[in-house]
Amino acid sequence: MKSWLEIDKTSDFSIYNIPFGVASIQDEKLIVSRIGNFVIVLDILQDAGVFNDLDLPYGIFIQDSLNGFIGLGKKVTGKIRKTIQTFFSDADFAGQFALDRDSYLLDANMVRMALPVSVGDYTDFYSSKEHAFNVGCMFRGPENALMPNWTHLPVGYHGRASSIVVSGTDFIRPAGQIPNKETGIPSFGKTKELDIEVEMAFIVGKETQLGDTVDVNSAEDYIFGMVLFNDWSARDIQRWEYVPLGPFLGKNFASTISPWVITMEALEPFRTNGPVQDTPVLPYLQQKGNHSFDIPITASLITKEGIETVICETNFKFLYWTMVQQLAHHTVNGCNIRIGDLMASGTISGKEKSSFGSMLEISWKGTQPIQLNDGSTRSFLLDGDTIKLKARSEADGIVVGFGEATGTVLE
Ligand code: CA
Fold first, then answer.
1. What's the CA-to-centroid distance between 26 and ligand 1, angstroms?
2. Which of 114, 131, 149 is the last residue of a domain?
3. How far, in Å, CA of 139 to CA of 124, rounded?
4. Measured in angstroms, how far is the CA atom of residue 198 from the centroid of ligand 1?
5. Helix, strand, coil shares, percent, the chain, to 5
6. Domain range holding 48?
7. Which of 54, 112, 177, 324 is the most exposed place for a label (fewest CB within 10 A)?
8. How far apart are the first and last CA of the chain?
9. Catalytic residues, which ones?
């Protein structure tokens, strides 16, 4: 496929991508797509008749989240995506509609993107074996690093949806109870161990009813697409509060997602197998076929002065548990899921130190500070630091990228 529109080869948004997002345009929120450095105003294409064959509801693209659109079902949203692809690759098809290019293509640098979905419930898994092992080593030693349950089920917890923010939303360094290292007595103050977690998340595209379970081998029908996810974490607050019910205020002050939802259709060329699961799993977790995706991810730290250092190069395919196993496990007890629910992977670490997905691991609890390109070092984030996550898959000339998920720590 090739577009009649000139698209920079470095762009994440090739003709093969065609993601969906929500833009804030003149006090209005609109469902949009993206190609190269242009935001595509889909409502204008609909008005001109581009989607006439699909019999879409009138004004379907004038909405402040993707939830209603996703609710049309994958069959319909898949056809919408294909029609957009045809429009931009077939000049004759596009020519029929006598549209002025400037009316439906906006310079992406001039468009403010909003949160793409209204997230009802957010779940965070813990599906990277390397990450679980590293953190376990630091706190319990290598012998007991992985808890006995870890290879039998995708460990997860229910997170907070209200503080999920779109890329570009800055946040204030959180405060909380932090125990004194010697006495163990807590005092109240700003976190000194502000960290990142390099993750990806999927968005649920189809609901179930209370009591329903999702079969592991049809679970992909329930996944609309994926985004980048940074699960900012205050380690000192987390360490004090997490026993026995798990993370709470150390993680719910902000979680950043990228604005463009990359559809599973776009990710199909990058399908691959994940790590071998050597411990046999129960039947409800036994997946057939390949359910992982080769998606290289980077995290960079940008100082207040604008000096950028890549601190992590990892890959979604390193995850031990797949999205379909996560979804099968999540619903095996009859827990219902809803359109727009967001399920994050957990920190994605690989085997090499350069692929560790948190500063806690890269700096090994602060014992090996991270060297930055401006000569300074970090064990954890300073005020003014920005973290930028990026992801981009490439195979046989097909490029599908995720854009960015960025956030800056304010004092
Ligand atoms: Ca996490």
1. 35
2. 114
3. 20
4. 8
5. 25, 30, 45
6. 20-114
7. 112
8. 47
9. 131
- Whole-number Å distance, alpha carbon 158 to ligand 1 midpoint, is 11
Task: Report the candidate in 106, 53, 40, 101 with the shortest Cα–Cα distance to residue 79.
Answer: 53
Sign of the CA dihedral with 30 first, then 33, 37, and 38 last? negative
pLDDT at 98: 86
284 in the same domain as 190: yes
Asked if the model's pLDDT at residue 334 lies above 90, the reply is: yes
CATH number of the domain at 80, please. 2.30.30.230
Helix ranges, 257-335 (H): 264-267, 323-331
Q: Do 382 and 218 touch, CB atoms closer than 8 A?
A: no
pLDDT, average across residues 106-114: 97
* Segment 34-60, tens digit of pLDDT: 999 999 999 999 999 999 999 999 999
In eight-state DSSP terms, residue 173 is P
Identify whether 244 is preceded by a cis peptide bond (ω within 30 of 0).
yes
DSSP assignment string, 253-266: T-EEE-SPBEEHHH
Q: How far is CA 178 from the centre of its chain?
A: 29
Say if CB 74 and CB 225 are below 8 A apart.
no
- Which pLDDT score is estimated for 9? 93
For ligand 1, a single-atom ion, the residues with CB < 5 A are 124, 197, 231
Task: Give yes or no: residues 141 and 78 share one domain.
Answer: no
Specify the pTM: 0.97
- Considering just the CA atoms, what is the radius of gyration of the chain in Å? 22
Query: Does residue 295 contact residue 316 with C-beta atoms inside 8 Å?
Result: yes
Structurally, how many domains does the chain consist of?
Answer: 2
Same domain assignment for residues 342 and 245: yes
Closest residue by Cα to residue 167 from 339, 393, 411, 389: 389
Residue 3 in domain: no
Q: What is the arrangement of strands in the sheet containing 296-302, beginning at the earlier edge strand?
A: 171-172, 398-410, 386-395, 296-302, 308-315
Residue 262 vs residues 68, 153, 224, 364: alpha-carbon distances, Å: 17, 27, 8, 33
Residue 10 is assigned to a structural domain of this protein: no
Distance of CA 61 from the midpoint of ligand 1 (Å): 32
Residues 226 and 99 in one domain: no
In whole angstroms, what separates CA 33 from the centre of its chain? 17
